[in-house]
Design brief:
208 residues; mainly beta; Pnp Oxidase, Chain A; seven-stranded antiparallel sheet; three-stranded antiparallel sheet; 12% helix; globular; binds flavin mononucleotide
Length: 208
């Protein structure tokens, strides 16, 4: 119902107050979280037929013990490999691997040897049987601790048991984002983006 006393929220100079409706339009409820990281997850035994799957539904779920999660549709070829081995490696691609990253998310390990076809190099890991991807500057070896079906996806929670980083992205043992140049993915419009520039440090306001 129109309220003759209410100001037009779109007019310049409008000052909102608590009683005014927020000038927003409600949109369809969905997991509108953006951007998210994009990873190349390796699964399967390096001495058998290892596979690579592009994963954007991934994140940190605990600091200590260090844990991450990945969510995979249960019918994926990779899902069976992860369930069987209860291990995977989260390989973080650089911007320069954009095309290879997309390709691993288009073709299936059921009928493709992605390492060969896409042109990525498997390297033996330290704690798990799945290979690291040599071309990715950072690799997290993970052991699955829990799996949970959620709906379209099944979440695999895993402990990070070893990490590797290329010398060229490290300074004083720390990963340099400027050097690692990660890719991000925006599920709202299915676009890949790179990161812009640094705008601040963690809790910088506490140092004022
Ligand atoms: C950018 C991008 C992100 C993706 N993220 C996921 C994801 O988080 N979970 C998932 O199950 N599939 C995801 N996919 C789809 C799979 O990577 C794709 O279906 C792949 O071909 C499956 O490989 P597989 O059959 O060898 O397991 C993504 C694809 C792309 C291109």
């Amino acid at each position: 119902m129109s309220d003759p006393g209410r100001k037009d929220t779109h007019k310049p100079g409008f000052i909102p107050w608590a009683g005014d409706p927020v000038p927003k339009r409600e949109i369809e409820p969905s997991a509108v979280l953006y951007p998210v990281p994009v990873a190349l997850v390796t699964c399967g035994d390096i001495d058998a037929k290892p596979n690579i799957i592009t994963i954007a539904w991934t994140g940190i779920i605990c600091s200590e013990p260090p844990m991450v999660s990945i969510s995979v549709r249960p019918h994926r070829y990779s899902a069976a490999l992860i369930k069987e081995g209860r291990e995977f490696v989260l390989n973080i691609p650089s911007e320069s691997l954009l095309e290879k990253t997309d390709r691993c998310g288009v073709i299936s390990g059921r009928d493709h040897d992605k390492f060969k076809e896409v042109g990525l190099t498997p390297v033996r890991a330290k704690m798990v049987k799945c290979p690291l991807i040599a071309e990715c500057p950072v690799n997290l070896e993970c052991k699955v601790t829990e799996m949970k079906p959620l709906g379209t996806h099944e979440v695999y929670m895993a402990q990070v048991v070893a990490c590797h980083a290329d010398e060229k992205v490290l300074r004083d043992g720390e990963i340099q984002i400027r050097k690692a140049r990660p890719l991000v993915y925006c599920p709202v419009n299915d676009e890949y983006w790179n990161l812009g520039s640094k705008v601040g440090d963690y809790q910088f306001t506490s140092k004022k």
